[in-house]
Design goal:
28 strands, mainly beta, 8-stranded antiparallel beta sheet, Jelly Rolls, 6 helices, disordered N terminus, 2 domains, single chain
């Protein structure tokens, strides 16, 4: 097929037909169309006429904004919005205005910020700027996908010579910090971004070239915590004129997100559950059942079932679904008998994030989902609602465990350093170097599917 003769809409349709749900990770560039014509599945980010759907914003932690008393939050947003709409007395124009369907910023005023908060999404947007400009796009309110003058020698020492598109606020040397290639066009020409964000993971294409590939975006406001699960898209102002057009966004659902997250390195993983029977598994398998290709603990049953094979260092990918208040666990380096939370390296909790509300009971932070039970607490707030499938990847290497839930790293800990144990109960198995992988049921119908392991 000759893609060069297709319109943007036709091109997108062809790409999605060829690649299915994997289309968001295709490196192909969507060509520029007439202003305001979104590809299938996308909606315009702005209407080309006024700032409907936008408010003012700043470099401000979105979690803190949401935690403010409503009156205080509304007053701060009103202040930012007034700054965004302020008229420059020299030009007689506001800092943000539309011209021929293009959103123009004179380099000043608060940031144009979507009123809507986004979770996982794909963003298409074109920009054109001027020499010595320095701008960016904030994702879920977090800075930023960088835009700047790649010829400005004064900023070569901070990376301008590498070009635009990198996650500039990542730590030095971290993946995504610097773009993989310099893809900026000369001044006076339009540049096109394609940005896919799933969980904390971001991929960026600039003018059709991949400049960031599946990199974790660090939380500028608190690097010990993942970026928020939801937040606004912000267009930054930074002292130089910038124009925006063809801004279209598409929200990404759970099934597609799981496919995107599982694409890197997937060929190296081997299924350990076939979706039909318990071949290759041991333990109290009569307490579990297979429903629609998923392994599920029977209600009011439990116990730890485990792979017949043992593992040392490995990565496991799986999907799980919880009922309200659901409780289960991943058995890590389980010896085949006893309580995996203590006799195995650990039990990684599989627990409804709203367990307290569902059961009217309190838990220790080291009992929350993704935690190494009783030893290390995971970050919370990144599960999908009860009844929906979640994607999780766990890496076990030596004494270190990392848990990534729906694209967010919620635990990264070295169990050899664990000294403070819940209820002062030691975990004699925490230094175990090898064992089985399994599921530790606790009476609730928690389901698992697409379970596969890559040995390291």
């Amino acid at each position: 097929m000759d893609f060069s003769i297709l319109s943007r809409r036709q091109f997108a349709t062809a790409v999605m037909a060829l690649a299915g749900l994997a289309a968001p990770l295709s490196p192909l560039r969507l060509p520029v169309s007439a202003q305001g014509t979104p590809p299938p599945g996308f909606t315009p980010l702005f209407n080309g006429q006024d700032l409907t759907g936008f408010r003012g914003g700043d470099t401000f932690d979105h979690r803190k904004l949401l935690a403010m008393p409503p009156a205080e939050r509304d007053a701060l947003i009103a202040k930012w919005t007034a700054s965004m709409k302020e008229v420059d007395p020299k030009t007689g124009k506001p800092h943000w205005y539309f011209e021929n369907g293009e959103l123009v910023n004179d380099g000043f005023g608060a940031y144009a910020t979507t009123e809507k908060d986004y979770g996982d999404f794909e963003l298409l947007i074109d920009y054109k700027t001027v020499p010595k400009a320095d701008s960016g796009i904030y994702l879920r309110g977090v800075p930023q996908v960088q835009i700047w003058d790649s010829t400005e020698t004064e900023k070569f020492n901070i990376g301008a010579d590498k070009g635009s598109g990198g996650l500039w606020n990542n730590s030095p040397g971290a993946p995504g910090k610097d773009p993989l290639v310099k893809a900026d066009k000369p001044f006076g020409e339009w540049n096109s971004f394609r940005i896919v964000m799933v969980g904390s993971r971001v991929s960026v294409w600039l003018n059709g070239q991949p400049v960031v590939q599946n990199a974790v975006m660090e939380n500028y406001y608190d690097r010990k915590q993942p970026v928020p699960a939801k937040g606004p898209i912000q267009l930054q102002t930074h002292g130089g004129e910038i124009r925006w057009r063809n801004a279209f966004v598409r929200e990404i659902g759970a099934d597609e997100a799981a496919k995107i997250l599982s694409t890197p390195g997937e060929s190296a993983f081997k299924p350990v559950f076939n979706g039909r029977d318990f071949a290759g598994w041991s333990g109290p398998i009569d307490n579990y059942e297979i429903v629609d290709g998923a392994l599920r603990c029977k209600e009011q049953k439990g116990g730890t079932i485990f792979t017949e094979k043992e593992y040392g260092d490995f990565v496991v990918r799986l999907e799980f679904k919880l009922p309200p208040g659901g409780n289960n666990g991943l058995a890590i380096r389980y010896p085949g008998k006893g309580d995996t939370a203590y006799e195995g390296m650990c039990e990684l909790q599989v627990l409804d994030d709203h367990y307290e509300q569902a059961t009217n009971s309190k838990i220790d932070p080291r009992q929350a989902h993704g935690s190494a039970y009783g030893m290390a607490a995971a970050a919370r707030g990144f599960q999908r609602p009860a009844g929906e499938w979640n994607f999780q990847e766990v890496t076990v290497k030596g004494s270190r465990i990392q848990v990534e839930l729906n694209g967010f790293v919620i635990l990264d800990t070295d169990l050899s350093q664990a000294k403070d144990f819940m209820a002062n109960s030691p975990h004699p198995g925490k230094d175990r170097a090898r064992g089985h992988f399994g599921f530790a049921g606790h009476n609730d119908p928690v389901s698992f599917r697409n379970v596969r392991i890559r040995e390291l």
